[in-house]
Amino acid sequence: MRKSFLPVLFILLLGLASCGDEQADVTPPSLDLVSIDPKLKTLEICGNPDEQSLRLSTRDTLQITLDIQDDGGLSQLKLDIHQNFDCHGHGGQAPGFSIPDRENATTDWERLQLIELDGVEEEFFLQLVPPTNGTAGNYHLSFRALDLSGNESSFDQIYNVVLQNSADTTAPQLTLNAFPQAAATLNRGDNYDFSGFLSDNQILSNGGNALVFLTYRPIDSEIWVTGPFQPMTAEELTETFTLNFIPPTTITKGSYEIAVWGFDGVRNIALSWKNTYEIE
């Protein structure tokens, strides 16, 4: 009988019901990467180097060959591609803002597919094509195999993809011209303005992702907390912004790093502005 990817609770109950079967197959299938083009390389993902990464343009085709084996018979291969804009599961956190759809908005690369398998070994070839107007940024690409007994392969087949929109690979420029002086003391509950402008080589509204935002974190932490943000909607190459930051009264006093970031329309990210402040 062919097994499918099922809710975890159902699989657990199925496992309990078969505990007395001495012939039960509890060996998960193996899933190995035979080849991948473009090649894997070490890239900085969410502030940390990762060896299981690749850089891809929306003009590229990702070609992958997998070797999948199981002693009792294979059932399915699960392919999952989804955005990693919020850096989930990679130590640290970055904003994953969602901006309302616009007529010319980019398309996030999302794909969830179950592929039927047969036999005890299969060499499977995949060609994956990102959206023509794909949103730039970090993505997760993962594979999992399922055998006829419902055993799943491990989670180690997860790769980071840095996607570039071929229509615009140039990062915007962020300039801050008004902000609290470096090393100044900021009082919790008070108002502080961070003002400047975002510039790009293309009209900021093209692509629907242009945004300026502020984040902060204790200097001994890797976790960024999202503060105020402002969408950039101008039909121009440059737009001004003012972010009003109010340090929450609930946070702990101490030294904090504050950063201001910017996205252009396709979600290329600007080099950030950062300063350290004492928050009292």
Write a concise keyword list for the protein shown above.
5-stranded mixed sheet; 6-stranded mixed sheet; mainly beta; Immunoglobulin-like; 2 domains; 280 residues; 1 helix
Notes on the structure:
The chain is mainly β. It folds into two domains: 25-164, Immunoglobulin-like; 173-279, Immunoglobulin-like (Sandwich), CATH 2.60.40. Helices cover 4% and strands 46% of the residues. It is built from one helix and 17 strands. Strands 2-3-9-8-5-6 form a six-stranded mixed β-sheet, with no helix packed on it. Strands 11-17-16-13-14 form a five-stranded mixed β-sheet, with no helix packed on it. A three-stranded antiparallel β-sheet has the order 1-4-7, with no helix packed on it. β2 and β3 form a beta hairpin. Mean pLDDT is 87; it is low at 8-13 and 89-95.
Reconstruct the topology from this structure.
Blueprint: H1 8-17, E1 30-37, E2 41-45, E3 48-57, E4 62-69, E5 74-83, E6 111-116, E7 121-128, E8 137-147, E9 158-164, E10 173-178, E11 185-186, E12 192-199, E13 211-218, E14 225-231, E15 238-245, E16 254-263, E17 273-279
Parallel strand pairs: 3-9, 11-17
Antiparallel strand pairs: 1-4, 2-3, 4-7, 5-6, 5-8, 8-9, 10-12, 12-15, 13-14, 13-16, 16-17
Biggest sheet: strands, sense, closure?
6 strands, mixed
Number of helices: 1
Please state the average pLDDT score: 87
Proportion in helices: under 10%
Shape, per Cα inertia axes: elongated
Q: Order of strands across the widest beta sheet?
A: 2-3-9-8-5-6
Give the radius of gyration: 23 Å
Per the CATH scheme, the topology name of the largest domain is Immunoglobulin-like
- Termini separation comes to 64 Å
The CATH architecture assignment of the largest domain turns out to be Sandwich
According to DSSP, the number of beta strands is 17
Low-confidence stretches: 8-13, 89-95
Order of helices and strands: HEEEEEEEEEEEEEEEEE
What is the count of distinct domains? Answer: 2
**CATH class descriptor name of the largest domain:** Mainly Beta
- Class of secondary structure makeup: mainly beta
| Percentage of β-strand residues | over 45%
